Amino acid sequence: MMRTWVKGAVIAMLVIPGAAMAQKPDMTCYDIRYSLDFLNVYPNAPAICEEVKEVDGVKYAKMNATVTKTEKGYTTVAFKDVFGNKIDKLSLEAVEGSSVMVGDKEVAWNGLKVGDKLTFWLPERSMHVVGQPGRGKPGAPIIFKAAAE
What is the pLDDT of residue 136? Predict the structure, then answer.
């Protein structure tokens, strides 16, 4: 009987680590690749990433911002890193039909108000953002420009 128990324990020790290794580990912000064009313009983007999700084989970096100004055609947002330090401030011009998440609601860029806390997702190796991973107009870019102080 003792021998059966020992055999079972040895088999479990061999099988369980293999099963754990077969599972896909959670992705982090280190797992996403930004386009070189995007990084040349926005070198702080990796510090703004909050998490990464993969949908239909595409990785998306989650980014949060707060609306600081709205003006005709542009919305200015402020970003913080994961430690709460101010990182960047950008003005964004959205293409018709694009949106972001404010809380759990999807909102058109032209419907944003000062103080809105928004979430958007940057597809890997891309220059456009979407409101949710796997959703949004493919190729509908958000045009970024440096925010005037």
Answer: 59
